[in-house]
């Protein structure tokens, strides 16, 4: 098995064990263009999961400061959207990593 293919596959599969760190290290260290491409793509897809977190934090702080007794719809909806987005990105990364590992799209 080719080392570059394994590194590319592990860059995507790192969503399960190393998060953003592994694709970043692979991107900075490797010299192979395809491996660097897959590491960058995996890194960007894993960074997408961080996009909705400021909205969650803002809605939580707003709910605490205002001390409202009503249902915090902004907070609940932002948490649900964040969870769905994280699941979609994680499944996409796992599928992409398995495809590269099984030599379907390298």
From TrEMBL:
Keyword Membrane on entry: yes
Main location: membrane
Topology with respect to the bilayer: Multi-pass membrane protein
Residues that span the membrane, as ranges: 12-30, 42-61, 73-95
Entry-linked Pfam families: MamF_MmsF
UniProt KW Repeat keyword: no
InterPro entries in UniProt: MamF_MmsF
Signal peptide as annotated in the record: none
Subcellular location: Membrane
This protein's UniProt keywords: Membrane, Transmembrane, Transmembrane helix
Name of the protein in its database record: DUF4870 domain-containing protein
Organism: Cytobacillus dafuensis (Bacillus dafuensis)
């Amino acid at each position: 098995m080719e080392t570059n293919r394994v590194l590319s596959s592990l860059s995507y599969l790192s969503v399960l064990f190393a998060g953003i760190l592994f694709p970043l290290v692979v991107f900075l260290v490797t010299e192979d263009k395809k491996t660097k491409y897959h590491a960058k793509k995996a890194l960007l897809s894993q960074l997408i999961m961080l996009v909705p977190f400021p909205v969650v934090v803002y809605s939580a702080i707003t709910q605490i400061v205002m001390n409202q007794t009503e249902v915090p719809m902004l907070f609940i909806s932002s948490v649900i959207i964040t969870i769905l987005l994280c699941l979609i990105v994680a499944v996409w990364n796992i599928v992409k990593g398995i495809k590269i590992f099984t030599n379907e799209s390298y």
